[in-house]
Structures are given as structure tokens and as C-alpha cells.
Prior knowledge:
Elements: H1 11-20, H2 25-32, H3 36-44, H4 51-61, H5 65-68, H6 84-91
Helix pairs in contact: 2-3
Amino acid sequence: MKKSFKVEVNPKVIKWARKSANFSEEETAKKLKVSLEDYKKIETGEEKPTFKQLEQLARLFKRPIAVLLLPELPKTKDSRFLRLLEVEKELKPEKLK
């Protein structure tokens, strides 16, 4: 089994993504299978998430991993362009006909 590596992230971006996806810290910790205390450490920057956790967060929050790696919070108020599902819908082959 491969061991995941820690990823440098801006904890404010993780917190923003969670809140904009309407998840509580408790729900997010449960989905990641970590304690609430350990999840809070990710959002405060005390701990870095593993790449596997980052992938899980991206799926949970329906965001591309690249968004979670942004160095600063997005400047736009309209976060729809950052949502993974909307991007996928636009890229479906039936839309190209």
C-alpha cells in the first residue's frame, strides 16, 4: 500500500471550499475518517492534508483539486465556474453535437 504525501495548501481555501459547499467541520471530518480535532488542524494550517485527503475533499466539495491548491481565496463572488460538476456537464460529448 502506497503512503500518501502531505500537500502544502492555504488553509483558508480549504475552509472556504467547505463552507461554500455547505458542509460542517463535523461532516467533513467524518467523510475523511479523521477526528474533528485533526480536521480542524487542517483548516487552521497546523497540519497539512495528505494528497489522498485532498482528493477526497475535492470530490466531497465538488471542486477540482486545482481549486484547493490555489494560493489565495478566489476573487470572484460567483464560484459556479469553480464547481466540478458544472465543468463536467459542459464537457460531455452530447453537448458538442
